[in-house]
Structure formats: C-alpha cells, structure tokens
Amino acid sequence: MKQFFSVADVDDLRGIVEEALRLKKDPFAFEDLGKRKTLGLVFLNPSLRTRLSTQKAAIQLGMDVMVMNMDKDGWALETRDGVAMDGKTVEHIREAAAVMGQYCDVLGIRSFPKLQDREEDYSEGLFKKFISFCGVPVVSLESATRHPLQSLTDLITIREHWQQDRKPKVVMAWGPHVKALPQAVPNSFSEWMCKAQMEGIVDFTIAYPQGYALSEAFTPGATVTNTLEDALQGADFVYVKNWSSYEDYGKIHPVSEKWMLDNGKLALTNQAKVMHCLPVRRDVELASEVLDGPNSLVIQEASNRVWAAQAVLKRMLEQLN
Ligand code: CP
C-alpha cells in the first residue's frame, strides 16, 4: 500500500478488517517490521484519537515516531503554485513535503477543509500536493473530504459487534451541532459502508434533515431518508454525526425537528449499538443517557483506532521492506 487516502486504496475490505482484528489479538506479532523506520505525523489541526492511536500503532510495529504540529510549530505554508510569496506564507509545500520525506519512511497528514470554497476543498489540492512532493507513502489522518482511518475503525467495530448470520442494518444519522463541521467523517463513513453494502456485508441507510444531503459521489447505493424515525426502525447500528451543508456549502440550516438521538428514539431500533467518532458534544449532538448507556460503543470504537492504523501501517511497511 503506497497511500491510504480513501476506500479505493483497499482492494480487500474483509481482508484488512480481519487483519486488524488479528493484530488486536496479538499486537506485537510484527514488532520488528518497522525497526529503523520512521513515521512522521503532521497535524495542521487538533487531534486526540488520531494522534495517539497512530503513534501507538507505529510503536507496536517497532517504528520511531515524530510528530509535527505544523499549525503551531511550523512555518506558514504556501500551497498555491505560481504566486510570489510576498505575504504571510513562509515555506512552500513543495519544499516542506519534500524535506519531511527525507526524514521519514512513511508520513501521515491531517488537514481540515476551510468550508469556504467547495471546489477548492473537494479538489483535495493540499493532500495531492503533499503526496506528490514528499516521495514516501502517505496515510491520511483526515483530509478535507475523508477520514479513512476512522471509517476502517468503524467497519472493524461493526464486524466485531455483529455475530448474526443476516446483514446488520447500519444507519448514519445526522445530529445537531452549534458549529459548522466538515463532511469528511460522514462522506468517508458512507463511502466505506456503500462499498461494504456492495460486498454484502451491511445494509446502509443515511438520515438527515432537508438541506444536508451529502455529495452523491460518496453515497452510491445508500438508502436515504429525511425522517429519522423511519431510518431508526430495525436499525442494528446507529452512527451519529453532524455535518454542515454540502449544497449550501459549509452553512448550518435551522432544523425544527428533534434530531438528537436519545433513549426514546433508540427504543425504535433493534436495540442498536450507537457509534460516534468523537469528540462529541453531549446533549447537543447525542444524549448523555445514550453515551453513558449500555448500547454505546464509542469507547470501544476509539480503542479500535489503534488496530485500523496498525493494519494500514503494516501494509505500508511490507511494501517498503
Ligand atoms: N475521531 C477523531 O479523528 O478524533 P481526533 O480528532 O481526536 O483525532
């Protein structure tokens, strides 16, 4: 594996999930694979889970890890080509990425969208340039449009908590929020679930209020509804997430219906397990009674971030060695 940017970078969905679960059973089985190899983690935005779980995964594979908080500690990056850098930016991504590639065998980068210009965000210009200039394998730690380590984790978590013969009904449900959030997590979850649905692993439904449709590029084959209660009927997993409007890009529309999942709404499901990528705003996006209740998988899900990262890094190291 030379890059991990989207579900398209995985040719065996079931295989990588099983690989991650084997690593969970035996975390140090490949502790020499990454010996004398360095992982660089570059953050242009905050992180708790992605930072710590990816570091832990790399350490368990024997790698050394360097972390760069580019937003706080790095030079202000220029990403445009053909402009005289006579403003605030100090270093061009061409040099910055190439230099980091000299120090690291694998790089990870996180860069959120600005939510101002949809075409610019959805072109993934920064990521594409970083991948092209650094010269080493790159793992996305969340880009403008996708969060693949989170989505692989989510599929692992569903696989781990589903032992029945039939396919589970997985529902991604929009939840309220006070801020405009990117579409990266829901795009990515949908992209992975749509592929899992195509492979007969899940049945997938998305529920959101009017005005919150995701780009159709990320939802092929998904059942879509604007009524949360309809979606929740018979659900086995409910994945709660807020996102801002894709159509009216980056905006928050007023929503009159109650979309926050609470125990009353959860009762409509098939005793569904509840997932959220975290961080979550309690009693805004998701009710505390659900988060603290027996159906919540949010901590197990965060724990599985390690095994998703370890499976991806293992594949990258195998290709290097
Ligand atoms: N879910 C997730 O990516 O968490 P962090 O933003 O804390 O890394």
Structure, explained:
- The protein is an alpha/beta fold and 321 residues long.
- 37% of the residues lie in helices and 15% in strands.
- The chain contains 13 helices and 12 strands.
- The protein has helices spanning 13-25, 49-60, 70-73, 93-103, 118-122, 125-134, 148-160, 184-198, 228-232, 263-266, 288-291, 298-303, 305-320, and strands spanning 3-4, 38-43, 64-69, 77-78, 91-92, 106-110, 138-140, 169-174, 203-207, 223-225, 237-241, 273-275.
- A 5-stranded parallel β-sheet has the order 1-7-6-2-3, sandwiched between helices.
- 45% of the residues are buried.
- The model has no long low-confidence stretch (mean pLDDT 97).
- Bound molecules: phosphoric acid mono(formamide)ester.
- Residues 204-314 form the Aspartate/ornithine carbamoyltransferase Asp/Orn-binding domain.
DSSP helix fraction: 25-40%
Strand content: 5-15%
Question: Strand pairing plus helix content: what structural class?
Answer: alpha/beta
Q: What is the typical, i.e. mean, pLDDT? A: 97
Ligands and ions found: phosphoric acid mono(formamide)ester
Could you describe the largest sheet, including whether it forms a barrel? 5 strands, parallel
GO molecular function, one term: amino acid binding
Subunit structure: Homotrimer.
EC number: 2.1.3.11
Binding site for N(2)-succinyl-L-ornithine: 142, 177, 241, 281
